[in-house]
């Protein structure tokens, strides 16, 4: 069941999901994508290392597209933001792929996110100095480590461009990517995102991803974009936290796309060529994500209490309260330290503390989360009320939950199912609980 604020119509995607389950319901997409299959030019099968060896030739058609894009949208300036953390050895290939773009209206901002090796900042500085001496618009900024999402947010705040392209410091864009993205966006003025298909390179070369046609419901359950899409700045500005610095081991991109679509609506156009090359390494951040995916997914879902069904959110809670590996607990503590102005890290920390039997610490974490939470997030007070009951303070726990039930529809039904399960296990008596 979807939990919603009483008397307030919330997220269209959640409401649409309910309607689509009704007999004879007809559902249409609110935001329909445009698609243009652009062909020709450089193909993704080009060796990635060849990009840094010299300038690839471009066809007359590619050059025409680049010229047309500049003429159609002469003011379209793209800020390419590149977070860097301890992989300066791969940065030269990434920057080489940028300077070889057939489209010239771009700038690059590299953000060193507190690299701990002795070489990455120096490599970045040397590359920026060399390229700026050649007339390219590049700069480097440094900041204490805050994670990938925090570095992207830092970079976007520091640029003025209306169009943003996040590019990881080990990935590559092929020479016609920016031109074809700009051309599509110019020809589809209602669109606010342009994205190309993806091909893997590095340790794995047989991976390719043709992005699916956008579906706002499917976005909740499967990511539909990689990180390197050109999108309008208004999407980022519509999300209070920008890229969410709360998810653990990844999923910042997916969570951002969900939040941006909820806030403003994503209207994509597609380049049906593998113009984005994603480097796959055995020890990459993505590979680490796969090993901790259940916790990453849970950390993402709790960001959207007004989107996901209540049962799915409680399942996410169970992932953290059922006993977690040390590295998960450490990752959550790091989020509390770096993003403790938001409720979500405190909620995860409370769940872990509760699962380990540290009830006082859990109570304190839930109280902090409840104080920081948005008005449409029922989760911290829900956990607080349940923990108050578990501690034997049924008066306080029932009062907390009854107040929640008055604010959120269907939450009382979710609680009834939960409470009757506890009754069935004999852990409480009927008189203790908030049941009619």
Automatic annotation (TrEMBL):
Keywords: Signal. InterPro entries: Glyco_trans_2-like, Glycosyltransf_2, Nucleotide-diphossugar_trans. The keyword NADP does not apply. Residues 1-20 form the signal peptide. Residues 80-210 form the Glycosyltransferase 2-like domain. It holds the Pfam family Glycos_transf_2. This is Glycosyltransferase 2-like domain-containing protein. It comes from [Myrmecia] bisecta.
């Amino acid at each position: 069941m979807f939990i919603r604020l009483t008397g307030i119509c919330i997220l269209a995607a959640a409401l649409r999901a309910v309607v689509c389950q009704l007999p004879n319901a007809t559902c249409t997409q609110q935001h329909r994508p445009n698609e243009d299959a652009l062909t020709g030019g450089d193909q993704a099968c080009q060796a990635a290392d060849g990009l840094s060896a010299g300038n690839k030739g471009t066809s007359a058609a590619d050059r025409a597209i680049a010229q047309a894009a500049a003429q159609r949208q002469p003011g379209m300036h793209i800020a390419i933001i590149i977070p860097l953390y301890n992989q300066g050895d791969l940065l030269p290939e990434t920057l080489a792929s940028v300077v070889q773009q057939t489209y010239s209206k771009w700038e690059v901002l590299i953000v060193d996110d507190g690299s701990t090796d002795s070489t990455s900042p120096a490599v970045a500085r040397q590359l920026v100095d060399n390229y700026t001496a050649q007339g390219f618009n590049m700069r480097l900024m440094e900041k204490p480590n805050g994670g990938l999402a925090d570095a992207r947010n830092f970079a976007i705040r520091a640029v003025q461009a209306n169009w943003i392209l996040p590019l990881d410091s080990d990935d590559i864009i092929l020479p016609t990517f920016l031109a074809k993205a700009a051309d599509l966006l110019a020809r589809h003025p209602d669109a606010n995102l342009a994205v190309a298909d993806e091909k893997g390179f590095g340790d794995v070369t047989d991976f390719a991803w043709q992005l699916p046609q956008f579906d706002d419901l499917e976005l909740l359950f499967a990511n539909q974009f990689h990180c390197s899409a050109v999108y309008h700045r208004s999407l980022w500005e519509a999300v209070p936290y920008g890229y969410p610095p709360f998810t653990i081991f990844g999923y910042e991109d997916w969570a951002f796309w969900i939040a941006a679509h909820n806030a403003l609506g994503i209207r994509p156009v597609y380049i049906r060529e593998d113009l984005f090359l994603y480097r796959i390494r055995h020890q990459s951040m993505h590979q680490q994500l796969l090993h901790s995916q259940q916790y990453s997914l849970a950390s993402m879902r709790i960001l959207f209490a007004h989107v996901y069904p209540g049962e799915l959110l409680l399942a996410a809670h169970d992932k953290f309260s059922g006993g977690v590996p040390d590295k998960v607990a450490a990752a959550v503590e790091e989020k509390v330290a770096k993003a403790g102005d938001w409720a979500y890290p405190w909620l995860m920390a409370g769940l872990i503390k509760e699962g380990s039997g540290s009830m006082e610490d859990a109570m304190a974490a839930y109280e902090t989360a409840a104080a920081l939470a948005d008005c449409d997030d029922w989760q911290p007070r829900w956990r607080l009320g349940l923990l108050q009951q578990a501690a034997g303070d049924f008066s306080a726990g029932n009062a907390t939950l009854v107040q929640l039930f008055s604010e959120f529809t269907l939450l009382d039904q979710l609680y009834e199912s939960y409470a009757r399960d506890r009754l069935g296990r004999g852990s409480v008596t009927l008189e203790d609980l908030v049941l009619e």
